[in-house]
Amino acid sequence: MQKKVIDEAKIEEAVHMILEAIGEDPEREGLQNTPKRVARMYREIFAGMNSNPREFLQVSFTEFHDELVLVKDIPLYSMCEHHLLPFYGKAHVAYIPRGGKVVGISKLTRVAEAYAMRPQLQERLTSQIADCINDSLKPFGVAVVIEAEHMCMTMRGVRKPGALTVTSAVRGIFETRPETRAEVFSLINQKI
Ligand SMILES: Nc1nc2c(ncn2[C@@H]2O[C@H](COP(=O)(O)OP(=O)(O)OP(=O)(O)O)[C@@H](O)[C@H]2O)c(=O)[nH]1
Ligand SMILES: [Zn+2]
Question: Does residue 115 come out as left (phi exceeding 0), alpha (psi in the -120 to 50 range) or beta?
Fold first, then answer.
């Protein structure tokens, strides 16, 4: 995969212009380093631009567990691509391994994070995680649920703090067998 270079100098220039455009003085003491800081911050929060999440799933081990694996309540931060404001919440990632192809559970959270650290839509983020696991591991099924609050609906626009958007993407047996889907959704909702 070709690396996409994050051009910090360009971000600095753009932030300087935004500060001017809102009527601020970018040279005043408190703002002098702001363009640099924002550029560094964007490099950090958009680190997913430079990752290939499929690579995290290359390392699998053979463990004959062909039943549900669910990692739930994974904290997730992303940036809404419409407003470049954060949306954040929890992801729940489940799969049923096939043929003993099992991955380290941390890899599932790495996949979710890599897709989250890009300008995103919650629906696309949810499907990308599901498709990545489905294509790489060819499991019996994958289910991904994300619940998130969007700052663009909280601090501006409709101003509805607390509104949670829930998205799901199911593949394989979770799509074809309602009982299996119901089981995973109930485990996700269950407070342990
Ligand atoms: N489906 C979806 N919509 C999103 C997501 N993040 C933000 N949005 C919505 O994207 C829409 C953009 O709508 P526009 O009318 O172009 O922008 P806007 O005038 O700023 O919209 P308002 O937020 O309603 O003020 C808004 O309804 C947002 O709530 C997301 O992850 N998925
Ligand atoms: Zn938004």
Answer: alpha
